[in-house]
TrEMBL record:
It holds the Pfam family NAD_binding_1. It is a multi-pass membrane protein. The keyword Manganese does not apply. Its cofactor is FAD. It comes from Amycolatopsis ultiminotia. Keywords: 2Fe-2S, FAD, Flavoprotein, Iron, Iron-sulfur, Membrane, Metal-binding, Oxidoreductase, Transmembrane, Transmembrane helix. This is Ferredoxin reductase family protein. The chain crosses the membrane at residues 27-49, 61-81, 102-120, 140-160, 172-190, 202-222.
Length: 455
């Protein structure tokens, strides 16, 4: 640090609880799921087993599938308590794997039920499926629900997801709600636990109503209420580089908006040609209660059009989202690692994070290092150290790859005693995470979040 710079007094993080917020959320979700699985199993056994093992397995798979659907609704509800602790990327990953588990449970349910009844009726599997659809209420609806789930599952496969615009992918996922409704009516019509036990019926109604209420509150009521309250609009549009722009927003009672440095919103700019597009952009400055700022690079048509926004344009913002915040800080000091436009949440965190801070800013060229002047000015004010690492992604320094373990240790010898916050392109982020693991940084001290959206 420049000895001529007068640093602000170092701020230290308050004592952290023994159980981190992330661990608390994971434990809560695990206990919630395990308790519900146990209850469903008890209800299934109490309802009586079929003489045909195939039918019993099929029924149990169907009950677990119904439970997985309700759990999926909880994961996509974007509840603030969960999102602040786990982050949308982790919730999305859990949602994805739960979705594939749900798909296999539904397939198991259909296959075992059909083959079980086919053996009982001495019928072919195809003939039995047609017979069940024609004779039992709700079976046809269940078949339609399965087809919809299969379509959504296919759209969620990596090869398909990479070829689809977010808006298209999101629209396809809306069919999941129709599938959930159809599956629920099927369960009401012929589900054994509904028909045989008032206690089980009460449980299923409570579970489904709670899940539906969570989605309604998190995805619709809360965003609408916040936007009616704060009435965001564009206050200024400032070019930061030839392909990067900052958008400043104002509104009412922004001091009551529960946003933190490091979080992001889904922004909808209410113009004629883009009101239907929602884009995730991080806050590039810590919220001050008067304005919000986002900074975006023109990597697509939507972000490129930000430069043409007019002052006064109304904005509908969903959020704040993300666990990339100081509530997860475990150590008195921190290392912030940014890559490209990933500097935006890092720049905001530098205002809010406690203790002594080292910032590593990775950019391909000096021109790509957006927000660098204000990052350096802010670092000088609060006594932080900034290292700018410019060069191609395969660049090597005197200690090997510039973000390899040896290079990180050379730049930050006390790295194992710091929290590490990483934001940048997927390849860079993965490289840094591998390096800090090799250096022995504890997992609870490492924080990275990718912008993955649960449908």
């Amino acid at each position: 640090m420049d000895p001529n710079v007068t640093a602000l007094p170092r701020r230290f993080a308050p004592p952290r609880p023994a159980v981190t917020p992330r661990v608390a959320a994971k434990v809560w979700l695990s206990v919630f799921l395990a308790a519900n699985v146990l209850l469903v199993t008890v209800f299934f056994v109490a309802g009586g087993l079929s003489d045909r093992p195939l039918i019993s397995v099929g029924r149990l798979a169907g009950l677990y599938a119904a439970q997985a659907m309700a759990f999926q609704l909880l994961l996509v509800a974007r509840l603030p308590w969960l999102d602040r602790r786990l982050g949308m990327d982790r919730l999305t990953a859990l949602h994805r794997w739960t979705g594939f588990g749900l798909l296999w449970l539904l397939v198991t349910h259909v296959v075992f039920i059909v083959f079980g009844y086919a053996g009982l009726e001495d019928n072919t599997a195809a003939g039995e499926l047609v017979s069940l659809a024609n004779t039992l209420e709700g079976v046809l609806r269940a078949i339609v629900a399965l087809v919809l789930i299969l379509v959504v599952g296919a759209a969620s496969a990596r090869f398909a997801r990479r070829r689809m615009a977010y808006e298209t992918w999101h629209f396809v996922h809306l069919y999941t709600y129709a599938a959930v409704f159809l599956a629920f009516t099927h369960q009401i019509a012929i589900g054994q636990s509904f028909a045989g036990s008032p206690v089980a019926r009460g449980y299923w109604w409570t579970l489904w109503l709670s899940a539906g209420t969570a989605v309604l509150a998190g995805r619709f009521v809360l965003p609408l209420w916040r936007n009616m309250r704060h009435r965001l609009q564009v206050a200024a549009v400032v070019p930061e580089s030839p392909d990067t722009v900052s958008v400043y927003l104002t509104g009412r009672d922004l001091d009551r908006l529960p946003a933190r440095a490091g979080q992001f919103f889904l922004w909808r700019f209410l113009t004629r040609d883009r009101w239907w597009q929602a884009n995730p952009f991080s806050l590039s400055a810590a919220p001050d209660g008067r304005t919000l700022r986002l900074t975006a690079k023109a990597v697509g048509e939507s972000s490129a059009k930000l430069r043409s926004l007019r002052v006064g344009t109304r904005v509908f913002a969903e959020g704040p989202y993300g666990a990339f915040t100081t509530i997860h800080q475990q150590r008195p000091n921190a290392l912030l690692v940014a890559g490209g436009v990933g500097v935006t949440p890092i720049r905001a965190l530098l205002e809010d994070i406690a203790g002594h801070v080292v910032v590593l800013y990775r950019a391909r060229t000096p021109e790509d290092a957006v927000l660098l002047p204000e990052l350096q000015k802010l670092a000088k004010t609060r006594g932080a150290v900034v290292h700018v690492l410019v060069g191609p992604k395969d660049q090597a320094g005197p200690h090997g790859p510039v973000l390899g373990p040896e290079s990180l240790y050379a730049l930050v010898p006390d790295i194992v005693e710091r929290d590490v916050f990483v934001c940048g392109p997927p390849g860079m982020t993965s490289a840094v995470l591998r390096s800090v693991r090799q250096l022995g940084v504890a997992g609870v001290q490492v924080h990275a979040e990718r912008f993955s959206l649960a449908a």
